[in-house]
Design goal:
With about 80 residues, the protein is of the alpha+beta class. It contains 2 helices and 4 strands; from the N terminus they run αββαββ. It has a 4-stranded antiparallel beta sheet with strand order 2-1-3-4.
């Protein structure tokens, strides 16, 4: 399979977002994470409807960093 056909099979999507200056944008989830981290987002649209930052529950930080937050016992260590 060629690179072009592999790339076309990947689904790219953008999240409709209202930023703090009142303008609407469509961001990838990765860019939305950055914008949320920089407190630049007022609202963004999920499939269930609009989410208001500071009112509705949202993730606290980037999905890519979630795996670093585990504070439980290390069960992989050798005793």
């Amino acid at each position: 399979m060629s690179d072009r056909s592999e790339q076309s099979s990947v689904k790219h999507y953008h999240v409709e977002t209202l930023v703090s200056d009142g303008t609407h944008h469509y961001f990838t989830p990765q860019v939305l994470d950055i914008m949320l981290g920089n407190n630049c987002v007022l609202k963004f649209r999920r499939s269930s409807g609009w989410v208001t930052v500071g009112v509705d529950p949202i993730r606290a930080h980037s999905r890519r960093m979630d795996f670093h937050d585990y504070n439980g016992p290390d069960r992989r260590s050798i005793h």
